[in-house]
Design goal:
By secondary structure, the chain is α+β, with helices and mostly antiparallel strands. The protein is built from nine helices and eleven strands.
């Protein structure tokens, strides 16, 4: 949840307070929840607005990540899109950034950039926009809500369009009994390219199977019943993407044979899984490394996008709160 520093938009150049914003990584689809389910992870993109005169680049990556540094940077384009949507002047500022989210690995790096830019714009300008409206605007840019919704809200989300066309989002905390595991390859995979292999349609039997699996997965992640590894896959995107991500497909099959609930994270090529929180994943390390993946442990992010104004903290109100995201830049 983000905290705005003011209740009125900035009216003139320079009438704004700089902010730092932290946005989590996300894993989407979660198996059978294609373009509908997503969950937030505790690795983050952190961005901060700074005076335009302080650096030559519009956006500077403090960690050396290779991203566009001009006005074509996705964080900046999303900042501008928010201002244009609300018909306000775009503040002439610059941005510094640091990320723990690998690019083009299926862990929501693009969605994090979109949400970071829009959240930063909301805080800097003071436009009173709630999180649901922010998710809608971010969805318009991203194309689907399954990554941007958990990036804004944290936790586990399910998204769908109602009969009236309105986006309906439901959020809950994933069960604390399960912990996420990430299997991250060194290779990258464009989401756009991964979508080109998807089938145009499914059979009636496949649609029924997809819906049944989606229900099992969502309930398992909330703790209603134990996860079933044999139901963690889907019939829509994973089989089609196996042909362009054979290492990911092989890893998924191996994990499921080992009774690990795993799915292709987003458009891949990373694989995500959940295991009992007290399980030692050491037995899975060699399995991952043999296939060119690095296994990373972590936890859920329950906060979503978080912001702090300079000189204060959006969480505690204190100037030197140790949880402020600016300490991580």
């Amino acid at each position: 949840m983000c905290v705005a520093a003011t209740d009125r938009p900035a009216e003139a150049a320079g009438e704004f307070r700089h902010h730092t914003v932290q946005v989590p990584a996300t894993s989407a689809n979660l198996g059978a929840g294609f373009d509908a389910f997503g969950i937030a992870l505790d690795r983050h993109l952190i961005v901060r607005s700074v005076p335009r005169s302080s650096q030559g680049e519009r956006v500077r990556a403090l960690d050396g990540t290779e991203v566009p540094t001009g006005d074509d940077n996705l964080v900046w384009r999303s900042f501008v899109a928010f201002c244009e949507q609300h018909d306000i002047a775009v503040p002439d500022l610059a941005i510094v950034a640091r990320t723990e989210i690998p690019l083009e690995r299926g862990l929501g790096s693009s969605s994090a950039a979109i949400v970071a830019g829009m959240t930063l714009a909301r805080e800097v300008t003071g436009v009173p926009v709630g999180d649901p409206a922010l998710v809608e605007l971010a969805t318009d840019v991203e194309g689907h809500p399954d990554n941007v919704a958990p990036a804004v809200l944290g936790g586990l989300v399910a998204c769908a369009r109602g009969d009236d066309g309105q986006l309906v989002i439901r959020r809950t905390n994933p069960t604390p009994a399960l912990a996420p595991l990430l299997f991250v390859p060194t290779s990258r995979q464009s989401t756009e390219a991964a979508r080109t292999v998807l089938p145009a349609s499914l059979s009636r039997a496949e649609v029924a199977e997809q819906a049944a699996r989606a229900g099992h997965v969502l309930a398992a992640l909330t703790g209603a019943w134990p996860p079933a590894a044999s139901l963690s896959g889907d019939r829509l995107h994973e089989p089609a993407r196996a042909s362009v991500m054979p290492a990911s497909a092989e890893l998924l099959a191996t994990l499921r044979r080992a009774e690990v609930h795993a799915w292709l994270s987003g458009a891949g090529p990373s694989v995500a899984a959940v295991v009992d929180r007290h399980r030692d994943p050491a037995d899975l390390v060699a399995l991952a490394e043999e296939r060119g993946f690095v296994i990373e442990t972590g936890d859920w992010d329950l906060s979503g996008a978080r912001s702090c104004p300079d000189g204060a903290c959006g969480l505690s109100g204190l100037q030197d709160c140790p949880l402020c995201p600016r300490h991580r830049l």
